[in-house]
Amino acid sequence: MAILELTKVTGGYTRKPVIQDVSFSLNKGELVGLIGLNGAGKSTTIKHIIGTLLAKSGDVHLNGVTLQENMEKYRTSFSYIPETPVLYDELTLKEHLELTAMAYGLDELTLKERSALLLKEFRMERRLNWFPSHFSKGMRQKVMIMCAFLVDPPLYIIDEPFVGLDPLGIQSLLDQMNVKKQEGASILMSTHILSTAERYCDRIILLHEGRVRAQGTMDELRAIFHMPDATLDDIYIVMAKEQDHATH
Ligand SMILES: Nc1ncnc2c1ncn2[C@@H]1O[C@H](COP(=O)(O)OP(=O)(O)OP(=O)(O)O)[C@@H](O)[C@H]1O
């Protein structure tokens, strides 16, 4: 069974749809890249998955249920790392981790064990009692990343994770993603860093003007675009120059 399944999702912010007929799924243990130009609809698609926007038509199943069918199961089946960190100014790093643990019903021991590993991995051990106002941009992002991994859900949704992290931070994140994948979790990641997406993603979904233009492994994409030796950058540029696919 797919952990995440979008079926013909059409939606947006106003009556005019931003994404149309978006269908794709993620299987257990897969890392899938959501790729597209600025304004293609990546964040809008993610908002429909996490439930901040509701589809005008079509549906999203997560862990076998829609948000309407079982809100509790749906919400606890994923964690989300937004593009721009959202932190509580009046809570320390330690309190952010504690709050996340409480929201997801983690016991004290699990919180202690998992946070010790994450704090070490992301080199934040000495910042436990700091407030967000003293964090750099990358550190703020690391707080969100640590909270997401603390939960240990079956699905991670990560919006443009690499901007703002230093190379060590990026490597730590990729390592964590890999560990979780090995344990069977699935990851949906949107990014503009195509070389990283090409290297790490099992499959790629190419969004263009609110629609899925193509999806598959790199080899499948090369076949679809008739570009046998192409990199993801090459394919992306060809897709970006297509004028009329939105109408087909
Ligand atoms: N809050 C909003 N209200 C109305 N329209 C919006 C809102 N946010 C985004 N849009 C519109 O939806 C379309 C898709 O935007 P979206 O943010 O999903 O793109 P994206 O693929 O994530 O782009 P980027 O790579 O720049 O982050 C754009 O035309 C944008 O103007």
From TrEMBL:
It comes from the Bacteria. CDD domains: ABC_DR_subfamily_A. Gene3D superfamilies: P-loop containing nucleotide triphosphate hydrolases (3.40.50.300). Residues 1-234 form the ABC transporter domain. SUPFAM superfamilies: P-loop containing nucleoside triphosphate hydrolases. Keywords: ATP-binding, Nucleotide-binding, Transport. SMART domains: AAA. One of its GO terms (molecular function) is ATP binding. Coiled coil: none annotated. This is ABC transporter ATP-binding protein. It comes from Lysinibacillus alkalisoli. The lineage of its organism: Bacteria, Bacillati, Bacillota, Bacilli, Bacillales.
